[in-house]
Design a protein that fits this description.
- With 235 residues, the chain is α+β, with helices and mostly antiparallel strands.
- It is 43% helix and 13% strand.
- Among the domains are: 54 residues, no CATH class; 39 residues, no CATH class.
- Helix 1 crosses helix 2.
- The protein is flat and about 70 Å long.
């Protein structure tokens, strides 16, 4: 998986701060102070004024479909109608690395679909029809544009240990890029539990997928309570 930042809004901190000043922010506050206040207090509509465009390559078709759940974004994917895909690369789930037999069967199934795709090409079948043979693991290219507010939402959801491994890898790489560009906005951003100081995952945090969550150990400095716990305390 490779992520390249193609474009982003320049001088974004000033733009956000100036947008806030429309509503009468104290004149003695510096731009970065204003932006920190915006992020900390979730006055996030002004974050929509800045955006980022990424070139994403080496992700699976399955992941590209999952990305469409983030609707406040602009999505462009490589077209399998107009591109030959017989030499496609593909995603290998890391779980398979622990089971050689499973890995072999997975690869055999992928290669069988590749052979069928190529065979149909030799029979004069169009790309539009052949694409239905492509496995969900097939690598694709993707261009993704999001504003900063949507990115925070994306990262909150997809940095969670319960996110699919491929999606979490994408979120980590995107976070690394945007935190370098605008650290005042993104350095403190993590999963939703980190962002809200309360975990909305509740009981499922103790599921198999959540077993590596660093915030669920009671008594540790990193512990973040669940939403259910907070509600029960109020009761």
């Amino acid at each position: 998986m490779r992520i390249k930042l193609l474009r982003y809004t320049k001088d974004g901190i000033r733009l956000i701060a100036d947008s806030c000043r429309v509503s009468g922010i104290p004149p003695d506050l510096e731009d970065e102070e204003i932006v920190r206040m915006v992020v900390e207090n979730d006055y996030s509509s002004v974050l929509e004024h800045i955006s980022f465009t990424f070139d994403v390559s080496g992700i699976s078709l399955a992941l590209s479909r999952e990305l469409l759940e983030h609707r406040i974004a602009s999505h462009t994917a490589r077209s399998t109608r107009y591109q030959e895909e017989g030499d496609f690369d593909y995603y290998l789930p890391k779980e398979l690395e622990r089971n050689k037999d499973a890995m072999e069967h997975f690869k055999m199934a992928i290669e069988a679909q590749r052979r069928a795709y190529i065979m149909l090409r030799s029979l004069g079948i169009s790309r539009e029809s052949r694409r239905y043979l492509l496995p969900m693991a097939t690598h694709t290219n993707y261009v993704l544009t999001m504003n900063a507010r949507s990115l925070i939402n994306f990262l909150g959801l997809r940095l969670c240990v319960r996110a699919s491994p491929e999606m979490r890898e994408l979120a980590r790489k995107i976070h690394s890029i945007v935190a370098e560009v605008y650290p005042v906005i993104f350095e403190g951003i993590g999963c939703r539990g980190v962002n809200m100081a309360v975990c909305p995952e509740n009981e499922v945090r103790d599921s198999v997928q959540g077993r590596n969550c660093p915030y669920k150990i009671k008594g540790s400095k990193a512990y973040i309570p669940t939403k259910k716990e907070v509600r029960e305390r109020k009761g």
